[in-house]
Design goal:
CATH architecture of the largest domain: 2-Layer Sandwich
Radius of gyration: 38 Å
Number of helices: 11
Distance between the termini: 43 Å
Largest sheet: 5 strands, mixed
Shape: rod-shaped
Structural class: alpha+beta
Strand order of the largest sheet: 2-4-5-7-6
């Protein structure tokens, strides 16, 4: 149940007390002028008004709880009509019944029609004001909820963008490459310069295509070769990347960073040595660009598995055919659905 102010304990204790005093003074002013208020003031009648206000407020609150439980949210407009009407009938009815009994049993004569009308109108207005405060609080909370939800969504989007940016920068590869570069500079300066070029090309590709939705396979292959060149310094040249795609197949579209991510994930997930070099092949099969390598998994799964899972979800947005990850016959297969230019245009529409 939403915690509206009408359910607050301080409001339930203090509001009827203050409002009951105001009602009693109002009734005195209706029947008398200001100079006569002090003469006709009665503490007993004041307590009666405060007590009736407590009863009226609690009955209204009880009906709010009943409507909260029985009336669904999508019928709230109907509730705006039924809840005040029910509150008036119940609250004003009980107040009038109590006053009638009080006058006949305690005062000794029946309540006059004028007094009955005054109390009826007063507590009808009281019930309407109570419900008005409740509905105002309800719509205020709903508006605040919408704003808070929008802010949370925006915060979530910013977190996702920051996560994607960190993944794009790939700090693990960057630090590892810098360590390899430091070692390489002491051995072979010319080779170190070529290594810097590969590292710069890899990160230039990432930053250049951050805002692109799709890129040609030819660019992805070049980026994957840069990653292989960077990682080969650590693996002593035991990594190879081979492509069997022809010129027409190179025009197919992929999500930026797909092949570099897959290549790095395969390398980091595979045991590589001079006795077991890793050869990654890329070819077209059944309208899928297939990336294949020897299956020789490490015992500990690297973080790239989470990145592959995100990439798999991304392809679900661009194509009806899913990205497929299969391990069979001592081979590791990752199949990427080809995204044609026509599909990209349809998506933008």
């Amino acid at each position: 149940m939403k915690r509206f102010f009408v359910h607050n304990a301080f409001f339930r204790l203090l509001a009827p007390l203050i409002y009951g005093i105001l009602i009693y003074l109002l009734i005195l002013l209706i029947n008398n002028n200001v100079s006569q208020v002090n003469d006709f003031f009665s503490s007993e009648e004041l307590y009666i008004c405060i007590g009736l206000t407590y009863i009226s407020f609690e009955l209204c609150r009880l009906l709010i709880l009943v409507f909260d439980r029985l009336v669904p949210e999508h019928f709230f407009r109907l509730r705006i009509l039924l809840q005040p009407l029910s509150s008036i009938l119940l609250s004003v009815g009980i107040v009038i019944l109590f006053l009638t009994q009080y006058f006949s049993l305690y005062i000794g004569f029946s309540i006059s029609i004028m007094q009955l009308v005054i109390f009826s109108v007063t507590y009808t207005v009281t019930v309407l004001l109570y419900n008005l405060l409740y509905f105002s609080n309800y719509y205020l909370q709903r508006e605040n909820t919408v704003k808070l939800t929008a802010e949370r969504n925006q915060h979530h989007v910013l977190e996702m963008e920051m996560t994607e940016f960190r993944n794009d920068i790939n700090p693990e590869l960057l630090f590892e490459s810098l360590e390899s570069l430091i070692s390489l500079m002491y051995r072979d300066v010319e080779k170190a310069e070529a290594y810097i070029d590969n590292l710069a090309n890899a990160y230039r590709y990432v930053l250049t295509n951050r805002q692109e939705e799709l890129v040609p396979v030819s660019q992805e292959l070049e980026a994957a070769r840069n990653v292989i060149a960077i990682l080969n310094e650590k693996y002593f040249g035991h990594l190879k990347f081979e492509s069997a795609l022809d010129d027409s197949e190179l025009q197919a579209m992929l999500i930026p960073g797909t092949l570099p991510l897959i290549v790095e994930a395969l390398v980091r997930n595979t045991i590589v040595s001079r006795f077991e070099p890793l050869i990654i092949r890329c070819y077209l099969e059944d309208d899928y660009i297939t990336v294949q390598s020897k299956l020789n998994d490490r015992l500990a799964q690297p973080q790239q598995q989470a990145a592959l899972a995100r990439l798999q979800k991304s392809y679900g947005l661009y194509s009806d055919r899913p990205m497929i990850r299969v391990k069979a016959y001592d081979e590791n297969y990752i199949k990427l659905p080809i995204i044609n230019v026509a599909e990209e245009i349809a998506l933008n529409r």
